[in-house]
Amino acid sequence: MITPTPAIILLSGGLDSATCLAIARDQGFAPLYTMAFDYGQRHRHELIAAAQLAADGAVREHRVIRIDLRQFGGSALTGDAAVPKDRDESQMSAAGVPITYVPARNTIFLAYALAWAEVLDAPNVFIGVNAIDYSGYPDCRPDFIEAFQRAANLGTKFAGRFKIHAPLIHLTKAQIIRRGTELGVDYGQTHSCYDPDETGAACGHCDSCLLRKKGFEDAGVPDPTRYHA
């Protein structure tokens, strides 16, 4: 009899995290738990997408953690600064850490996942970070993921058993989309835009939208995103 291997997936509702959920299922992890965060982000429509993905994915439990990162600011996603629009990849890469980076966000998210993992005795956590298609976020780098995993194993009862799975970290956006398509991910349910309208339609011009568009184009997969006029 195969012993169940539970896993927690950080599920933002975006393209990458939806692919991670499909990968975790394909690799045989079960039961699956998902965690999303309502942290004061301007693009809260992603939480609706996360809930739908979790429901359709038949996860055992989906939790939405409410924290207020707006009290610190420092990001266009948690403050009033304008979200950059219509930048090409050279402009994105030349900008250093972009204004859409939320300070310490993945550190905070992984810490919450780690706490739930201890309670569930589920030492596997999936996160959809990516270091290839440019984001410029320091908390998406392999060194950060490896360092957090080491710290988690030192500071919890897992004592070496805790593992962070980052299956997308060395993939391009096109490769991620191809993999998810193979696994049956409905990308029409996902939400990536940093500055959607009140209906949740994507702006089509922020860095996230542009990288998503290019990913579908490069993958040769029709883009199902709903953009506002």
List the main descriptive attributes of the protein structure presented here.
alpha/beta, five-stranded parallel sheet, single chain, about 10% strand, Rossmann fold, 7 helices, about 230 residues
Short description:
The protein has 229 residues and is an alpha/beta fold. It has helices spanning 15-26, 45-56, 89-94, 105-120, 142-155, 173-182, 207-219, and strands at residues 7-10, 32-38, 61-66, 124-126, 163-165. A five-stranded parallel β-sheet has the order 3-2-1-4-5, sandwiched between helices.
Structure description:
There is one protein chain. The chain is an alpha/beta fold and 229 residues long. The chain has a single domain (7-219), classed as Rossmann fold (3-Layer(aba) Sandwich), CATH 3.40.50.620. Helices cover 36% and strands 10% of the residues. The protein is built from 7 helices and 5 strands, in the order βαβαβααβαβαα. It has a 5-stranded parallel sheet with strand order 3-2-1-4-5, with helices on both faces. Helix 2 (45-56) links the parallel strand 2 and strand 3 (61-66). The model has no long low-confidence stretch (mean pLDDT 93).
CATH topology: Rossmann fold
Number of helices: 7
Question: Any idea what the shape is?
Answer: globular
Order of strands across the widest beta sheet?
Answer: 3-2-1-4-5
Instruction: Specify the CATH homologous superfamily.
Output: HUPs
Helix content, binned percent: 25-40%
State the order of secondary-structure elements, H for helix, E for strand. Answer: EHEHEHHEHEHH
Largest sheet, in brief, is:
5 strands, parallel
Low-confidence stretches: none
Q: Roughly how many Å apart are the termini?
A: 54 Å
How large, in whole angstroms, is the Cα Rg? 17 Å
CATH class category label: Alpha Beta
Query: How would you classify the quaternary structure?
Result: single chain
Total strands: 5
Strand content: 5-15%
How many domains? 1
